[in-house]
Request: fold
Amino acid sequence: MGGPLRVVHYVNQFFGGIGGEDQAHVGVSVRDGAVGPGRILEKALGDDARVVATIVCGDNFASESEVEASRAIGAELERIKPDVLVAGPAFGSGRYGLACALACKVAQGRGIPAVTAMHPENPGASNARRGIYIVPSGASTTSMQAALDALAPLARRLGRRETLGPSEVEGYMPRGTRRVHDRGRPGHQRALDMLLDKLHGRPYRSEVPYAAPERVSPAPPIADLSRARIAMVTTGGLVRKGNPDRQVSANAVRYHRHPVAELESLSPTEWEAYHAGYFNHIVNSNPNYILPLSFLRDLERQGKVGRVHEQIYALPGVSTPVAVSAGHGRSIAEDLKAGGVDGALLVAT
Amino acid sequence: MRLEMGTFPVTDIAFGRTTRYDAGRLTVDPDAVLAAVRQDPRIASAALEIAKPGESVRIWPVRDVIEPRVKVEGPGVCYPGICGREIATVGDGRTHRLAGMGVVEVSSVNWHDAGGDFVETYLDMSGHYGEMYPYQKLLNLCLVVEPDSTLNEEVKNYAVHKAALTVADQLGEAVRALTPPEREIFELTPVDPKLPKVVYIWCVHSPQAMSGSPSAFCTATYGLTQLTPPWYLHPNEILDGALTGPYRTAFAMSWTVANNPLFLDLYRRHGRDWNFLGVISLRTEWTTQTEKQLMANQTAKLAKQLGAQGAVVTWDAGGNEFIEVVRSIQACERLGIKTVFLTSEDDATDGAPTMLEPLPEADAIVSTSFFKNVTLAVPEAPAVARVIGLPTRKILRGSTIGLHAGADGTIPTKGPLPPPWRYDDHYGFGSLSCIE
Reply:
C-alpha cells in the first residue's frame, strides 16, 4: 500500500460551509480536499494521510430521503475509492448523528472501512450503533479537537485494514457484538481493583461501556378520540383460564391475539394471569386490571372512544430479550395498523 | 464489634454412630440428626444423603445450601431471626464454622404460589454444569425433606428451611467445644485517616411484591424478607448470618452469601487499601417508580452520612429490581461517591444494551457474563448414576422445557437435563465476563 492514506470526510451542510438549518434540505455534493473540520482532521491524521474529498449533505435530506442520500453517497465513494471514510463528528446533533451513521453503513456496505464520532446519547449512536465504529465525543463542538484526536488513530488503522481490538481497549463504542469472555481473574477481584483505581483517580475501564437505549419518537396525539379505533395490548401475562395456549410465564417467544368483540368485560372465570414477575392473584380476581376492557367499553358507550378494536394482544413482559421484544412489538404494530387501529392502550404491570 | 471466627475445615464426611468432628473428618449420626428434624410436626418425611465432589450425582432440586455456623461466645445465634430463631444482634464474640461443606436443602416446596417463580436450581457433583458453581467442590450433606402437604406454601417453606437449619445446628454443636484449627479476627479497627472510606451496597431481593406477602420465604435480614428501607449492617453481623439466602438463583444461596468473596476481600483489605465502613443492604423489587427512586436516594444518603467516598454495589435478581440498583449508583455518583458495580448482563442479541436501564453514571462496571444459561450456551447436563431428591421433574404449565416431557408431563431428573434458566454469578466467584 504505497502513498498516503486516502480519506473521504463526510460532513453536514453546516460544517460543509453551505449554511445552517435553512440549508438542511440540500442534497449530496462533493468538494476536493478538506473542508472546515476536515482540516483539523487532516492534522490529527498526520503526514501519511490526506483528506482527498469531502462529501457534504443536508441533515434533513439524509434523514428524509435516506434511500436517495445513500445512493448518492455510495456513488461518490465508488468513484473516489478512498481507503477509509470519516464522518462527523456529530456531537449531540441527532439528525447529523444519524446521517453520519448512515454514511458509515453505506461505506461499509461497499467494503470501505468507516468511523465516526458523536456523543454517546446521540440517536445515531443508540439507534444505528450496530456494526459501526463510533468514537464517543462531547455534546458540543468545543470537543472537536479531542474527538478528532481520538478518532484519527482508529481511522488510520482501519484504512490500513488493521483489525481493531475490543471496544473497551480501543475506545470506540460497543458495536453489538457482545460475547462471553473469560478474563482469567475472578470478578470480585476485578471489581475491587477497579474500586481502588477509581478512588485514587487512576484510569479504569468499565467492562460494560455505556450504551444508550434506543429512543422511539411517539406518534402524534389522536385528534378526535370519539372517532378513533382503540386497541389493547398487555404485557401482564393475560391468558385464557387454564392457559390452553400454553403461553410461558416469562421470556415470551410469541404473543397471543384473542377476539373480544363479544365481550363486555374480562371475567375471572374465563381469564387469568400467568406472569413470573408480579403478584398474579389480584389479576386473577379481576383480569380487567391488566386489560381494562370493561372501562374502555364504558367510554365506547359514552361516545368518548369511537370503537374498541375486536382483537386484544397479550404476552408476559418479563425476562424477554430486547431483540425478541422488538420483534413482538413490530409484529403487533403491523397487525394493528392493518386493522385500521388509530391508538393502542399498552398496559404494563 | 469484634468477632473471632474459628474455622474447622471438613475434608471428609461419613455417617456413623455419633456426630463428631475429628481432624477434618466429620461423622454424622443420621438417626439423631433426623430425630431433631422430626420434632417439628410439620415435617412429613426427612432423609439424609451424602454427595461428594467428583461423584456422578445430581441433587434435584436445590433450595438452599447452608454452611454450618455456631455461636460459641457473645450474644445471639448464627442465622438469627430465620424460622423463629432469636433476633439478638450478632457479630460479637466467637463463632465456629464448618468450612468446605454444605447442608443442602432438597424439597419439592416452591417459593410461593403467586406466579411462575419456580425452584429449578440443581447441583451436579461432576461435569461441566456443576463446575460452574462453588458447591460442586463442597462435601454436601443433603436433607431430602417434605412437609405436611396440607400446610400453606409459606408455612411449608419455613418448615423445610427450619429443618435444614436444624441439621446445620446439629453439626455446629459438634465443634462448639473444640479448639479451631484456624482462627481469624474480624474487627473494624481504627485505620490511617488518609485511607479512602468505602461501603458495600449489597442489594438483595424481597419476595413481597411478587408473592403478595410481607412474610413470604426468601433472602432474609434477621429473618425479615419484606420490602424495607436500606439497612446498615456491621460486616460481623453478616459473618454471623444476619443476611441469608436463598433465592431462585444458584448464587443466592445462604452458603454463597456467607462466603461472598467480594465482601470477604473488602473486609480483609480494611486498613490496608481502604477504611471499610460496613454494609448497606437494600431490599429490591419495589413496585412504583417513586419507591424505587426513594430507595436509591436513601441508600446514597446513608452512604454519604456514613462518610463513604467509594462504594461497590452488587445485586441478586432479574430485571425490575435493576432500576433501584442502578438508580442507587446514579444517586451515589451524584453525591460524589465513586461507585463500582459488579453485575451480570442481559441478552445482547441484535446489539441490545445489556443493562436494562443504561445510565452514564454507572461508568465502572465489572461483568460476570450473561445471566442466562441459554445465552451462555451451556449444554445440557448429561445423565448421572444417582439422583438425590426427586426422581422426576414435573413440567409446569407452559414451561419452556415442556418439549422434553413424557406423556405424564414429567421428565426424569437423572437426565440428560437442560440447565436452569439462570446462571448469574452475583458476587464474582468466577472469571467469566463479556467483551465486544
Summary: Residues 2-370 of chain B form one domain. The radius of gyration of chain B is 21 Å. DSSP finds nine helices and 25 strands in chain B. The first helix of chain B runs from residue 30 to 38.
